[in-house]
Amino acid sequence: MNVQAPFFQTGATVAYGGPESRSPLSFRWYDKDRIVRGKRMEDHLRFAVCYWHSLCWPGGDPFGGETFLRPWQHGDDAMAMARAKADVAFELFRLLDVPFFTFHDVDAAPEGATLKESVANLNAIADLFEQKMASAKVRLLWGTANLFSHRRYMAGAATNPDPDVFTYAAGQVRAALEVTHRLGGQNYVLWGGREGYETLLNTDMKRELDQLGRFVSLVVEHKHKIGFKGPLLIEPKPKEPTKHQYDFDVATCYGFLRRYDLLDDVKLNIEQNHAILAGHSFQHEIMLAQALGVFGSLDINRGDDLLGWDTDQFAMNVPELVLAFHEILKGGGFTTGGLNFDAKIRRQSIDPDDLLHAHVGSMDACARALIAADEMLEAGALTAPLAQRYAGWDGEEGRAILAGRRSLAALADRAVEGGLDPQPRSGRQEYLESVVNRYV
Description:
440 residues; alpha/beta; TIM Barrel; 2 domains; two-stranded parallel sheet; 16 helices
C-alpha cells in the first residue's frame, strides 16, 4: 500500500450543520463558538484525539489479528512509517478541527535497540510534530510514556522487583516529559498499567508502594527542574492488565498521593471504562475527585455493560454524559485538562472514514450533554433539591457542629434533654431521575 496516498476520502474540515443536518460528517450539536456559561463550547470540552488507539491499534483482539491493514504499520523503515503516521495524524486533527492531541512515546516513535536510540527516535518525531504544529491549530494536551507493553515491564515499571527496570523506566519518562514540555503540553500523564500484582505470593506490597511513591516524586522533582508548569496526572484503573492495580480508583489514588505528599503536583485523569471496572459510575469518580480537590482531566470513552473488560468504545451515551458534565460544570470546568478520546473504533470498522464518524458522533454526544447539563444547572434542577436536602447543615446548629463548637456530650445532652425526635424525609430518587429525563 502507498503511504503517500490520501488516507481519508474527504478533505473538508467537519463543520457545524445544526440539529437538522443529516450529513454524517457534520456536527449537529457541537458548535465550537456557542457560548455556554460564559465560555465557548470548544473551550469547555477541550477535545483531544489520542495517537495510540486512533492510529496505532491494528484492530486485533485476543482471538484474532489485525483487521485495519493500515499502510504505516507495514514497512521495513520504522522511522519512515512513523513519519507517514504523523502525516495522517495531523490530517485527522485538521479534519476534526480539534484543539488538542495526546500521545505515548512508543506510539509516536519506534523503540530502538537501546534506550538511547529510542530517545533519539522520539526526539526526531517530536521535531516533526513541532514543525507541523507551527502551521496547525492543534496543541498538545498531554504526553506519556508506555511503561507496560514491553516484556521488561511484565512485573511493573516503578514497582518492579529489579531496580534496573525502575531505572530504565525513569529514562523513558524523562524523555517523554521533556518532549511534552518542549511541545507545550498542558499536562503529563503517568499511567501505571503494570503497577500492581497477579498474586500476593510473590509480592511485597509495602515495598512496591514505596517504590511507586518514590518514582512519582522523582518525576515531580524533574518537572520543577525543567520548568514544566502543568500538573502530573495519574489515571485510576482497578485491573487489566494486572489483577489488582495500585491506582484502583479515585479514593485509592487520593490516599496514595496523600501518603507520599504528592497532592500539590498530581491530579487525576478519570475514565468511564475504568470507573465501571472499579464498581463505580463515571459520575461517582468525577464527583469524588472534585470533592477531594484532585480532578484533572478525562479520558472520554465507555465500556460495554455486557463485557467485563476495558473495551474503550467511543462515548455515545448522552444520559450518562449529562451527569458527568453536570459535575464538571458544578466544579468550574477544566483548567489544564480536557476530553481525550482514549477510544477505539470496533475491529469491523475498517474504512478509514470510520475514524472520522466515531469522533464526530462522540463529539456531538458530548456537546449535547454539555448543553443539557448547563440547562439543568441554570434551572437548579438537581442543585436546588440537593441544597434543600442538606439545608439543616447550613443552619446555625449544623455549622456549629462542623466547626467543632459542639462536644459529643453537648450533642447528647441536647438530644436527650431537648426531646429530639427527628423523622426521616424522602430521598425522592424516582422524582429526581424523572427530572434528569426532562433534559435528555
